[in-house]
């Protein structure tokens, strides 16, 4: 019987090529941060991050990073407590609305960020008058931006689980709808929810256009500001942000595998 999938050698070649494609710019950036004033390689640029004398120059980055982490938490909360329950409700109670709902959720991916800002600017004018101009209010815009990516991750888990049978079984045993969603359906959708959370965090940490045009200080806008004075610090923080996302991906993958073993 002929195998339809690629051979082991083909998979290794593809894996190596993809790895080299991503590794070359990362290694180049790391070597760039190791350059010293004499043209050699040293860790003085990395050590300067923790030098009190140089902390004032990179203070905008720390401020922007803190704002971005707060935005990431609020955006993840929007995905988990607003998008996910709505998707469950649509799949269980209103299946005829699923095509229209999917179209509306995937629409932001086809609209450029600068166009979104033009539409969001009047809305944020009212938000600024009622809720203030804090950076955390960007989470409403970021929640719209991450909708297509989070939707696909959660929908894949919904398609793999029989939500209707699980919910009907739980309801027949006397469980309320909040209990059904939190204790029955959510554990079976854990992998999709974790993936959606990771994607949301990655989008928030890498978004620049919306924050810049709405005049909010986040991680990416702070990198641009500091880069005009010190080009090495933004490169170092970029590598650290990529490392953080990579470690977060490993933790989420490990948690998803653990939950899968527990269910089996």
Walk me through this protein's architecture.
- The protein has helices spanning 8-33, 44-47, 59-93, 98-106, 113-131, 138-145, 147-160, 163-172, 177-188, 190-206, 209-213, 219-227, 232-263.
- With 264 residues, the protein is mainly α.
- The protein has one domain (63-259): MetI-like fold (Orthogonal Bundle), CATH 1.10.3720.10.
- Helix 3 (59-93) packs across helix 6.
- It is globular.
- The two termini are 30 Å apart.
- The model has no long low-confidence stretch (mean pLDDT 84).
CATH architecture: Orthogonal Bundle
CATH class: Mainly Alpha
Radius of gyration: 22 Å
Measured by DSSP, the beta-strand proportion falls in under 5%
Number of strands: 0
Map the helices and strands.
Elements: H1 8-33, H2 44-47, H3 59-93, H4 98-106, H5 113-131, H6 138-145, H7 147-160, H8 163-172, H9 177-188, H10 190-206, H11 209-213, H12 219-227, H13 232-263
């Amino acid at each position: 019987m002929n195998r339809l999938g690629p051979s082991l050698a083909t998979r290794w070649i593809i894996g190596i090529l993809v790895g080299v494609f991503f590794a070359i710019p990362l290694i180049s950036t790391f070597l760039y941060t190791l350059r010293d004033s004499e043209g050699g390689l040293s860790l003085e640029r990395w050590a300067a991050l923790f030098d009190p004398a140089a902390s004032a120059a990179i203070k905008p980055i720390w401020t922007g990073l803190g704002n971005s982490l707060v935005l990431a938490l609020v955006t993840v909360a929007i995905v988990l407590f607003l998008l996910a329950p709505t998707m469950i409700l649509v799949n269980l109670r209103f299946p005829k609305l699923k095509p229209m709902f999917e179209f509306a959720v995937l629409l932001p991916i086809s609209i450029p960020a600068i166009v979104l800002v033009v539409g969001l600017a009047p809305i944020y004018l009212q938000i600024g008058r009622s809720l203030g101009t804090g950076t955390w209010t960007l989470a409403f815009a970021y929640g719209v931006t991450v909708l297509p990516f989070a939707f696909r991750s959660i929908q894949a888990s919904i398609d793999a689980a029989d939500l209707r049978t699980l919910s009907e079984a739980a309801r027949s045993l006397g469980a309320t709808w909040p209990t059904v969603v939190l204790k029955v359906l959510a554990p079976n959708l854990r992998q999709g929810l974790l993936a959606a959370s990771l994607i949301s965090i990655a989008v928030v940490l890498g978004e620049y256009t919306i924050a810049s045009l709405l005049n909010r200080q986040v991680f990416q806008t702070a990198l641009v500001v500091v880069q005009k004075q010190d080009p090495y610090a933004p490169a170092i923080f970029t590598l650290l942000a990529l490392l953080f996302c990579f470690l977060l991906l490993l933790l989420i993958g490990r948690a998803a595998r653990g939950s899968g073993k527990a269910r089996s």
